[in-house]
Design goal:
By secondary structure, the chain is an alpha+beta fold. It contains seven helices and 19 strands. The protein is elongated and about 105 Å long.
Length: 372
């Protein structure tokens, strides 16, 4: 029986000595020199006691070393709380590092890549058709859907005014927060721009009637692979994210990120012959372009708006863009509603963050960014 007690005491003292050495190494540059010297002395006594094999002597030596360790590194207040806070900060730091250098999330606000990737869209009905509060929560959490309604504040019709073209146009103004102000009589109504087309124009409304209503569905949340282009060159057909800091087109926000499809590599001449994209006069062979050329859900590649100011770079037959060295050209898959390289030209390689590879949310659209 004594053998097992002695063995246990030797093992425990070994752990104490290991802990004491760790404390000394971690605090030797900030601890009280006298306490450090006392700890070294205590360690020597403990090693001698362990060598002697005397159980009681080993226990006393171990207790003395533990007390000295507390002098070198005094116990902190609320250790559990401090430990949890430290773990939280480490987790946040790790998440920020992953976001900055590996996989960064982005939200798609516009329809420039539809139907490959979706921006904010409008539906008439929710996915789960129920007025139950739980159903509303489920629609929001699972599908990113929220029901919006704006009711008329006065009797009458939504105001219009006659335009120079002899046709009636909305009377109101566009606001800076992606809404517009429309009027019934003199009563102003703030309407999300996405819902404008759902307004009940030309109808006689009573105060309290729905002026506009619909289900707003969130744009796709995607993950971008920020490390891939450090090892391989960007490839035509990739859906990639780039920043706009170096773009000078007046319609481009300088502090934004755009997501488009890479259509032109350095040294190539890109043009459009609707519905086709032409690279050096030829259709690209990458199969990812086939759906844009022939799938009825896409409109193919179209010329930019010829009325744009400044004039578009590819706005009519015969227009083309030749990409300089280390620059790439990007078009949206939905070229009828895309502010892209046809307007602002090529993008420098250093502006490109990486390719989009996965849609995280809403869950009904989750999966690989390039599904077919």
């Amino acid at each position: 029986m004594k053998f097992f007690k002695t063995r246990k005491a030797r093992k425990e003292l070994k752990e104490v000595l290991h802990y004491a050495r760790h404390i000394r190494h971690m605090h030797e540059d900030i601890a009280d020199p006298k306490a450090l010297e006392q700890l070294r002395t205590g360690e020597q006594i403990a090693r001698a006691a362990r060598k002697s094999g005397e159980g009681e002597l080993m226990e006393k030596a171990g207790e003395a070393v533990i007390k000295t360790c507390e002098k070198v590194a005094p116990p902190r207040k609320h250790p559990k709380i401090r430990e949890n806070v430290e773990v939280l900060f480490v987790a946040i730091a790790a998440a920020m590092a992953i976001r900055a250098y590996f996989f960064q999330p982005f939200k798609i606000p516009t329809g420039s890549m539809q139907p490959t990737l979706y921006g904010i869209t409008i539906k008439q009905e929710s996915t789960i058709k129920s007025g139950n509060p739980l159903a509303k929560i489920a629609n929001m959490v699972l599908f990113g859907e929220r029901y919006e309604i704006v009711r008329a504040k006065a009797d009458g019709r939504i105001r219009t005014q006659m335009g120079a073209d002899g046709l009636p146009h909305l009377y109101g103004q566009i606001n800076s927060d992606e809404t517009s102000t429309l009027y019934i009589g003199n009563a102003a109504h703030r309407i999300p721009n996405k819902l404008i087309s759902f307004c009940r124009f030309g109808e006689d409304l009573k105060a309290g009637d729905p002026m506009v209503q619909g289900v707003v569905k969130s744009g796709d949340y995607i993950l971008v692979n920020r490390i891939k282009y450090n090892f391989v060159r960007p490839k035509r057909g990739d859906i990639a994210v780039f920043d706009t800091r170096e773009l000078t087109h007046p319609q481009v926000r300088r502090d934004a990120y755009y997501i488009k499809r890479m259509v032109g590599l350095p040294g190539e001449t890109i043009s459009v012959a609707p519905p086709y994209l032409l690279v050096n006069g030829q259709k690209p062979t990458d199969s990812r372009f086939d759906k844009i050329f022939s799938n009825p859900h896409y409109d193919g590649y179209q010329f930019a708006d010829s009325r744009s100011v400044p004039p578009a770079l590819i706005g009519k037959p015969g227009d083309s863009i030749t990409t300089p060295d280390d620059q790439y050209l990007f078009f949206g898959d939905n070229t009828r509603q895309s502010l892209d390289g046809r307007y602002f030209g090529p993008v420098n390689r250093r502006q490109i963050l990486g390719p989009a590879f996965f849609v995280c949310w809403p869950f009904d659209r989750a999966g690989l960014a390039e599904k077919n």
